[in-house]
Design goal:
The chain is α+β, with helices and mostly antiparallel strands. It is built from 4 helices and 17 strands. It has a domain of about 200 residues. The radius of gyration is 66 Å and the shape is elongated.
């Protein structure tokens, strides 16, 4: 009897021990508990071991009330979680706002770029139009200027003075000495055939050397006048239909270049012009007779400072058969200075030969000159 009562008492204590007594927590959230499981009584086991070997029962620490520190930590944790959630929400809202603003800015930038591109295209188109208008205006201005210049030229041509060579003739024979100096006298008359007076009228004339006449005319027509205005024949005024030089004979000269003898067969000879002259071994000084009279008339109008000029070339033409002047050379002995092998019609005096006037008939050279007019 005593053993039974002791066993029953132990069983009752075990049953009481296995029962879960809920402990209410003040100011703490409800914590879910595991369901209560009634343990099976095992009489063979020791009472202490039975309580420890029941897996379904929660430990005694779970039923303990939370300490103030734990409650504070839980509260702080929950507050931190709330703050984190609020911060995350704020970041999310800000991120969405930033994305929205970025999209707006991107749209605005795209719109601005598109607008700038359109503005650039419009500007280029406008510049192209302006350039075309400027080119057209420039062409129109050039056409107007060309038209004005053409009208001015036509007016000038119709109203300007025009001077021509109206008379030319040699009045004396031609003389050549052993130094190659040649001279003669020529009568030259210039006439104003234009409608207005000419000013600063002057003209020059020289003996010409074959194959060099045209260059010499260019030189004379670009020379400055040889004296002040109104002095002598320089700077004279020549009215329409009036003539200049009617009572004058002018001296014309030339310094001939000595020729180098290449070969000679009978009376036929071949020569050339060397830069340094013939060699010292050559016993003769050979000169070719001048071939023409060349010259230029210069003048200006009273409405312009532009110089005008008229160039001319007149060749010597033998008037009779047997007077072979073209290509005829004069030979001077270098030691004595006297000419040799002269035809009977050419005279010689003191080392100077004179070509008679009948050898020196002039005719215009239409192939080389008389076309130099401005």
């Amino acid at each position: 009897m005593i053993e039974e009562s002791s066993s029953d008492k132990h069983q009752q204590d075990d049953a009481e021990t296995t029962k879960t007594i809920p402990v209410p927590l003040i100011d703490s959230p409800a914590v879910p508990h595991a369901p209560t499981v009634e343990p099976r009584p095992l009489p063979e086991q020791v009472v202490g071991e039975t309580a420890n070997q029941t897996p379904q029962n929660p430990p005694d620490d779970a039923n303990k009330p939370m300490t103030p520190f734990e409650r504070k930590m839980m509260i702080l944790t929950l507050v931190g979680i709330g703050l984190a959630a609020v911060t995350a929400a704020l970041f999310y809202v800000q991120l969405n706002e930033m994305q929205s603003q970025t999209q707006i800015l991107a749209s605005q930038s795209e719109g601005a770029n598109a607008g700038a591109l359109m503005d650039e295209m419009n500007t280029r188109n406008q510049l192209g139009i302006v350039k075309e208008q400027a080119d057209a205006a420039q062409k129109q201005a050039k056409a107007a200027q060309d038209s004005a210049n053409a009208i001015q030229r036509q007016t000038e041509i119709g109203s300007r003075p025009w001077l021509e060579l109206s008379e030319i003739a040699l009045t004396d024979g031609m003389r050549i000495n052993a130094k190659g100096e040649a001279n003669s006298l020529v009568h030259i008359v210039a006439t104003n055939i234009g409608k207005t007076p000419a000013r600063e009228v002057g003209f020059w004339a020289e003996l010409g050397e074959r194959y060099n006449e045209h260059q010499e005319i260019q030189r004379m027509c670009t020379m400055e006048t040889g004296g002040p205005k109104g002095a002598g024949k320089y700077g004279q005024v020549l009215f329409p239909t009036k003539k200049l030089g009617e009572k004058e004979n002018r001296v014309i000269t030339i310094k001939l270049k000595p020729l180098t003898l290449v070969s000679r067969t009978g009376k036929a000879e071949s020569t050339r012009i060397d830069k340094n002259g013939p060699p010292s071994s050559q016993e003769e000084s050979i000169y070719s007779i001048p071939s023409s009279v060349i010259g230029c008339i210069q003048y200006k109008s009273f409405t312009s400072d532009v110089p005008y000029y008229t160039g001319f070339i007149y060749e010597f033409i033998p008037p009779a058969k047997g007077m072979e002047m073209f290509g005829y050379n004069i030979h001077f002995d270098r030691k004595t200075g006297k000419a040799s092998d002269l035809p009977p019609t050419i005279s010689q005096e003191s080392g100077t030969v004179t070509i008679p006037l009948e050898w020196l008939r002039l005719a215009p050279n239409f192939g080389w000159g008389n076309d130099i007019v401005k």
